[in-house]
Write the structure tokens for this entry.
Amino acid sequence: MLRIDELTKRFGDKVAVDAANIFVDQPAMIGIIGRSGAGKSTLLRMVNRLTDSSEGAITYDSEEVTALRGAAKRDWQSRCAMIFQQFNLVPRLDVVSNVLHGTLNKRSTVATLFNLYPQSDIHKAIEILDRLGIAEQASKRAEALSGGQQQRVAIARALMQDPEIILADEPIASLDPMNAQVVMQALRTIHEEDGRMVIANLHTLDTARRYCDRVIGMRDGRIVFDGTPDQLTTGVAREIYGAGSDFSEAATSTEIDTLDRQEVREAEAYV
């Protein structure tokens, strides 16, 4: 389904991603972990085609993604949605309008300029917001929402594209532990219920183990681990983070007890 072969990105003399190889044969929730500067964000940006690769290839269902140009590239970016750490919402616009921006690649310039959306799209946006537990925030400005709510709006915007793949670049890095769990559970539910592939860059080992089917570890631009959460031992984590025997997983922890799904749903109303 998704194949990454010898994917490399150079910025001048610096190699940000060094000959990455990843094969995903069915939809999964995959976490990519590693220190800041390990190449995680650059890897996802190349998959989405926000950044061009220096070498290597990305293939999805026999289509060479790295060769796409123009309209074909924009179509890929609709099928492979991106969620960012800083939400990338328009603060002064209402929540529904921000979600509807997920359809911009499929709309005319005139319709976009005058903020004209068909009723079917508006209803769909509200349904997605309801699914994420924030339909009551639909008419509010994005800037009035909490960080966790804004990230769920960003997820809703991605779902408006009806993507086959969702790429989440540090989706919980700027959130408190409670909000982080709500957002990660939302991504997990989308994977399980919709059968979408979700690939998320994460800083915390406990989050990767708790929510992901597969974990990829990056260090200095190279993939140094690719396995199941159970295989992500403290020793493996030391290798990924380039740490010594004094390495503590607590330093990468969200430091909150795991909530079950009912508790997450109850928390959604407040965060």
Residues 121 and 228 are 38 Å apart (CA to CA). The chain is about 35% helix and 25% strand.
